[in-house]
Task: inverse folding
């Protein structure tokens, strides 16, 4: 009968894939587990993850595409400035190069305030 090392002694933890104990810094965090660390060390977790990505290429690619779509969506154009004035044709200054716009009311308020100082 082989003696299995203690799972977690506070400074080291056993990785069943390595069949070795490693420092706690070699394990990812996992709040679902009793010791708040993954079962496998970082090296083996990365290997397992990469192998899953290769074995499930279509599912992985679909997930990555969806994540990209969610994070790279263009925001709809604002209908009001930060102070709540509506961007209408009369109240909007558009830069000549077309790379931005300003609220004319906010600009006028700023100039009045600046002139009083």
Result:
């Amino acid at each position: 009968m082989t003696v299995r090392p203690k799972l977690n002694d506070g400074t080291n933890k056993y990785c069943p894939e390595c069949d070795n104990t490693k420092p706690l810094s070699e394990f990812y965090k996992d709040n679902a587990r009793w010791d708040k660390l993954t079962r496998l060390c970082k090296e083996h977790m990365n290997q397992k993850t990469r192998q899953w990505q290769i074995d499930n290429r279509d599912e992985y690619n679909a997930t990555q595409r969806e994540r990209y779509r969610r994070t790279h969506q263009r925001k709809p154009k604002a209908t009001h400035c930060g102070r709540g004035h509506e961007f209408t044709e009369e109240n909007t200054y558009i830069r000549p190069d077309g790379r931005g716009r300003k609220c004319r009311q906010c600009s006028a308020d700023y100039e009045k305030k600046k002139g009083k100082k």
Strands lie at 12-15, 20-23, 92-94, 101-103.
